[in-house]
Amino acid sequence: MSKANCIVMVLALSVVASARGAAGIALEANARWKLEFPDLPDTLATMSTGQRQPARLTVQLPANYSRERKFPLFALLNGDDGGRGDTLPRDSKTIGSNDFICVSLPLFKRVFDKTNGVLVTVDDFETVSRAYRVMFQKLFDTVPNIAPERSALGGFSNGAHTTALLLAGQDDFILGHFRAFYFVEGGNPLAANALHQAALKPCRFLLMCGDQGKDYLSPAVEFGARERGLDFTFITMRDTGHEFPLKYQRMLGQWIRGERLSETEQK
Which of 139, 163, 211, 223 is 20 to 30 A from 65, comparing alpha carbons? Predict the structure, then answer.
């Protein structure tokens, strides 16, 4: 091989390497990859099933990703035991293919007791807070152009409880990296306890509840939010029980992108 060809090959390999972050992770449009955290405590899914897998965070970079601009984060927490951190939004149209970096994380719990089930409670705050601080910090170190403006964190059911727990516990790391929070079929009691915090004033909130369940606390949350002048949107999911229909997943995406919702769509 000639000296000139060797130089060309080295330059080409350098370009490929520069498009990758830590541990060979691709920082390029539409890239999807995982970060694993073997040193973190067991996830709630591991506790509830007995099948141990390391905590992981799955990332999908947007189709218009580049290193030359900042991108907000859309973080999703699933319900029940939270899964394995490898399930991104069930429909790509929830957040769309552009503009947002999409991530999925597992749930955590201090102690799992079969009698009390998987529900995340105030006793789990320290465990959840420490785990997410480690996971998100590694993500921010790997993808340095994530912007807190417009970044959203939330979830369905137990994922909504976990989100509300972080707010009620005044988690400064979370409040420093996210500006929007959403709760789908969960989180109401904890969210109500967090509304008085001054740190929440600049943030946006969305609460989505089905009309087929027993939801006694949404009116109290709504009243408290309006009393404190918070940017809080309430949506009743019509003909819906404890589920998250595709129609409302897409509505969530509209809200996160900052698109105006019609009055008929809101509570």
Answer: 163
51 three-state secondary structure:
coil
Q: Which residue is associated with the tokens 């606390």?
A: 217
Sign of CA dihedral 14, 17, 18, 19: positive
pTM assigned to the model: 0.87
Cα–Cα distances in angstroms (integers) from residue 19 to residues 70, 72, 100, 181, in the given order: 16, 20, 19, 31
| Helices of type H across the chain | 3-18, 44-49, 125-142, 158-168, 172-177, 188-194, 218-227, 246-257
Indicate whether 235 belongs to any domain. Answer: yes
The CATH number assigned to the domain holding 43 equals 3.40.50.1820
Q: Tens of pLDDT along 176-229?
A: 999 999 999 998 766 667 777 888 889 999 999 999 876 656 777 777 788 888
In 3D space, the residue among 126, 109, 121 whose CA is nearest the CA of residue 47 turns out to be: 109
Q: Is the pLDDT of residue 77 over 80?
A: yes
Residue 23 lies in a domain: no
Tokens standing for residue 210: 């089905």
The helix/strand/coil state of 177 is helix
